[in-house]
Amino acid sequence: MSVFRQRNPRNGDEGPHRVAVLVREGVMPMELGLAHQLFGYAESPGGEPLYEVVTCAPVPGPVRTDADFPIHVAHGPEALEEADTVLVPATHVADETETDGTLPPALAAAMARIRPGARIASICTGAFVLAAAGLLDGRRATTHWRSVDDFRARYPGVEVDPDVLYVDEGDVLTSAGEASGIDLCLHIIRRDHGTAVANTVARRTVVPPHRDGGQAQFIPRPVPPAQRSSTGNARAWALRHLDRPVTLGEMAAQEAMSVRTFTRRFREETGQTPVQWLTRQRIDHARQLLEETDLSVDRIAADAGFGTGASLRQHLRASIGVSPRAYRRTFRVQEQDQEQDQDRPQDRRAAPAASY
Q1: Which of 37, 240, 338, 340 gets the most CB atoms within 10 Å of its CB?
Q2: How far apart are CA 200 and CA 42, in angstroms?
Q3: How confident is the model over 112-157, as pLDDT tens digits?
Q4: Rounded distance, CA 73 to CA 66, Å?
């Protein structure tokens, strides 16, 4: 019996995107809850849910958490056979994935039931499960910074990047610590349904709508002297002036710093150089305009500070692998489908997911 809502393809019913959260003994409630909260808030313009989330375990029933309460998981690994996306949170209980680089038998049997073509993602040390299953071999991935050395020792075939919040390898995604699971889920929603939907989810949960995957994890560093000011004012100023050239000197002047000091502080706070950060903001602004307006590519390029349509095309291809026209067409098709669904209540369906 299906644990998800039944679909009827003959009636054009694609239904919400199915997300199965695979939990293990010692699961962290925050990671489990954030998946249900964020995907649960994603809706079409007509108010239809875009995702359906279920929790499953290798063996259904009571599951210990790392808090002072257990959870009851009603669904077993059969849920994985129908999932479009499988999300693997962390656990505070070390198992074979962390001690000898293999999957425990019950977990191996569960992972084997994931259907071909499903997207698989992990939060924090859930990446050990993906690595033990062979899903990360030859790929780039991340995990919590405290576990990086152990991860490298267990899985030398994985290219570990400890300095990012999440890594998107297309059909396999990994994220760092617990809070970066929020960034990962919002990234998935943004990738599937665009900036507007992801921003709405972020507003409802009162979290930043976007922290780029390249932003550094908050690895302990010596505390800077108290007299050093933040670079937040400079970032806010730059965002108000994306439509014109922004120099490093101008940004440093907003904080009354030398360019050298400002550059060092900026990288300490964001994990990026000012130029990298500024380019990311310009790309995000251009994506939003492509999704939400009918402005020409040249006009969007000017408004986002790229100057020319050719420059915007180059940056967008380097960032997400598609041209501005293809990106806009993808999300306009989704909007048309959603409008048609509102006109046909008997045949409502979620917008198709974009995959970049």
Answers
A1: 338
A2: 8
A3: 999 999 999 999 999 999 999 999 999 999 999 899 999 999 999 9
A4: 15
Which two tokens mark 342?
């509102």
Tell which residue, 229, 250, 184, has the closest CA to residue 31: 184
Of the candidates 354, 329, 347, 332, the one whose C-alpha atom is nearest the C-alpha of residue 14 is 347
For residue 159 the two structure tokens come to 């290219």
Distance CA 4, CA 179 (A): 27
In angstroms and rounded to an integer, the radius of gyration of the C-alpha atoms of the chain is 22
Q: In the predicted model, what is the mean pLDDT of the chain?
A: 86
Residues 6+ apart with CB under 8 A from 281: 238, 239, 242
Burial-class residue 171 by CB neighbours within 10 Å (0-12, 13-18, 19+). middle
Mean pLDDT of 14-35: 94
In angstroms, rounded to a whole number, what is the distance separating the alpha carbons of residues 130 and 158?
11
Structure tokens at 108: 């191996």
134: left (phi over 0), alpha (psi -120 to 50) or beta: left
pLDDT at 344 over 60: no
Q: How far apart are CA 28 and CA 25, in angstroms?
A: 9
Tell me the percentage of the chain whose pLDDT exceeds 70: 84
* Whole-number pLDDT of residue 342: 43
Question: 64 with 214: CB under 8 angstroms?
Answer: no
Residue type, 131: A
- C-alpha span between 200 and 211 (Å, rounded): 15
Q: Say what percent of the chain tops pLDDT 90.
A: 66
